[in-house]
Design brief:
The complex is a heterodimer. Chain A has helices at 6-32, 39-56, 65-90, 96-112, 124-127, 137-156, 162-165, 171-175, 196-201, 204-224, and strands at residues 181-182, 189-190. By secondary structure, chain A is an all-alpha fold. Chain A has one domain. Chain A has a two-stranded antiparallel ribbon. The relative contact order of chain A is 0.17. In chain B, 59% of the residues lie in helices and 2% in strands. Chain B is built from 15 helices and 2 strands. In chain B, helix 1 (30-48) packs antiparallel against helix 4 (92-111). The radius of gyration of chain B is 22 Å and the shape is globular. At the A-B interface, helix 4, helix 6 and helix 10 of A face strand 1, strand 2, helix 1 and helix 4 of B.
């Protein structure tokens, strides 16, 4: 008898929605303050959070798979291009765009190769397409391990907010020494020195936390799909 | 992974809006890097603990797996393992959630510097607990602890890594493992570990002609490409189990003495150990069975490979280039110049 506690999936689903909501708030703040740095990550987190919530709790899923596949394909291309541009601009390095590209790729795989997980936690929209073959377990494990490594190295990184903006962002911007927005690669960057709530919302540690939650949730889903 | 190639200082070119990294980069703290790799493995284990199979009662669930580990052990060991399995069977959600939580705490605790030491200490205690109750004392007591199947217990290597990666001041030379316990002790540990693996390869059931073939042939539910590797391995091992076991023992002995050999031979033996365990991890451990959907950890392959990497000799050139003040002992300096 399989007795997976339902609260576990609800817990992950709520966490995913929280990340999506946080991404939405960050996006709204960046629009208000006319800063563009990190918007792509915010948008990605919104889509990933909503779709992942639907994977953990089937009742919360909506939209056809094809639409989600298109969204994540576009995000994948965007982050790959950004990675290439970052390498061209700064030389060979492990840019933060790569992890977002990997996450977009994982989301795409989960929709292109859906499989009814042993948890039964997959969304209806995905299970309807179950006639297609499933994602290779080796690839699932590899991606999950990469995401877990990202979690650990993000938590340990002295460059807070790097999961959102990368380490090529000016150091003083990350530490909040400057106010408002600063010019940075990829557009003006929202700096965590606004007043009250804005400062709290744009705290780089919070941005890292949202990445950590998303990566753990996605890694867990990939393990479930093995 | 957020830019692991971090730079210590950054400068903004306001006109071109480009950021230039400082050419004098801070040297990477390799001990810290390997601590984080260890934390990543713990995090993987924590998530594996949340698989539906782990919450399942009965013989096909986690408690059944634990019960299976009791077989063949002395009575008092069996009783302790079956007692734990019984608790897991009666309270699968509570026990399994607790097990997962402990592993999450270890992984995240290692990642956060302030909780590094408590997390490593907890990992040692937890590893010993799992070794006893989850791995049946590594099958050592009934002669089934062949390195080909993870003997003497994958989780023991986690504990060993926690000890060898215990945070300490100083440089990473002559190799990372020496930083916490010293060169002499680290080399002794290395020799003992690989010596033990050599012994385990040729004692007990693992050395019988058919044992390795049966071990590999028993795997089910693997993806197609891994099943093909299994068939090839099983065919290769058919009736040659004893020969392969003796060969592994010889390799382990060579690797064991490698730590005392000159630099180039030392590196060769480390590569030999890494390649051997990469082969074992894929061909006979099947990635710990994770790909078949019923594993609690990736088995001994990854931790042993990490162990080998923290014994990789670092050249004097690295210390100089990194600008690390040399505080190595005369003993460690000797090791750098074979």
């Amino acid at each position: 008898m399989t007795a997976t506690p339902p609260w576990l999936y609800y817990l992950f689903a709520v966490a995913m929605l929280a990340v999506a909501a946080y991404g939405l708030v960050l996006l709204a703040v960046s629009v208000v303050t006319r800063s563009t740095g990190g918007r792509d990550v915010d948008i990605a987190h919104i889509f990933m959070g909503v779709s992942m919530a639907g994977m953990f709790v089937a009742d919360w899923a909506f939209g056809p798979s094809a639409t989600w596949e298109l969204i994540f394909a576009v995000l994948l291309i965007w982050f790959v291009v950004q990675s290439i541009q970052s390498v061209i601009a700064f030389g060979i390095h492990l840019t933060h765009y790569l992890i977002h590209a990997a996450m977009s790729f994982a989301m795409l795989l989960m929709y292109v190769f859906p499989a009814a997980t042993r948890s039964g936690a997959m969304s209806m929209s995905m299970s309807m397409a179950s006639s297609r073959s499933r994602i290779d377990p080796g690839l699932s494990l590899l991606l999950a391990f990469v995401f877990f490594a990202s979690v650990i190295f993000t938590l340990a990184s002295p460059n807070k907010g790097a999961s959102h903006h990368g380490t090529h962002t000016p150091a003083y911007a990350m530490s909040g020494a400057a106010g408002g927005t600063v010019e940075a690669p990829g557009g003006p960057l929202l700096v965590s020195t606004g007043r009250g709530a804005v400062r709290l919302i744009t705290d780089p540690r919070l941005e890292d936390a949202s990445h950590v939650v998303m990566a753990v949730g996605m890694g867990f889903m990939l393990i479930l799909m093995i | 992974m957020t830019d692991m190639t971090e730079s210590s200082s950054l400068a903004l070119e306001t006109q071109s809006q480009r950021v230039v990294t400082n050419p004098v980069a801070e040297p990477r703290d390799l001990q810290r890097t390997f601590q984080l790799v260890l934390a990543t493995v713990w995090l993987l284990d924590a998530v594996l603990q949340l698989q539906p199979f782990m919450f399942t009662r009965g013989s096909s669930g986690f408690s059944g797996m634990l019960n299976h580990m009791a077989a063949g052990n002395p009575g008092w060991v069996q009783h302790s393992i079956t007692w734990n399995a019984s608790n897991v069977n009666h309270y699968p959600v509570l026990t399994n959630s607790t097990f997962a939580l402990v592993q999450f705490l270890i992984g995240f605790g290692i990642a956060w510097r302030r909780t590094l030491k408590p997390a490593l200490a907890l990992s040692i205690v937890w590893a010993l607990f799992v070794w006893w109750f989850g791995e049946g004392v590594g099958n050592i007591l009934h002669g089934g602890a062949t390195p080909f199947s993870g003997g003497p217990g994958a989780v023991l290597f986690y504990a060993l890594l926690a000890v060898l990666l215990w945070p300490s001041e100083g440089s990473d030379g002559p190799f990372v493992a020496a930083r916490s316990v010293g060169v002499t002790a680290a080399r002794s540990v290395w020799a003992v570990v690989w010596g033990l693996l050599a012994v385990l390869a040729v004692v007990g059931s693992g050395r019988s002609p058919q044992a390795l073939h049966d071990l590999v042939a028993a795997y089910t539910g693997q993806p197609g490409w891994l099943a093909r590797i299994d068939r090839a391995t099983a065919s290769m091992f058919l009736h040659h189990g004893t020969t392969v076991a003796i060969l592994l023992a010889v390799v382990c002995l060579v690797v064991a003495v490698g730590a005392y050999l000159p630099l180039q031979f030392n590196r060769f033996t480390l590569v030999l150990g890494i390649v051997t365990y990469a082969f074992i991890w894929v061909a006979t451990e099947n990635f710990g069975g994770i790909l078949a959907g019923g594993a609690t950890d990736p088995n001994s392959g990854p931790p042993v490979i990490i162990l080998a990497l923290i014994y990789w000799p670092l050249t004097m050139a690295r210390d100089t280039a990194d600008g690390v003040p040399s505080n190595s002992t005369s003993e460690s300096k000797k090791a750098l110049v074979p």
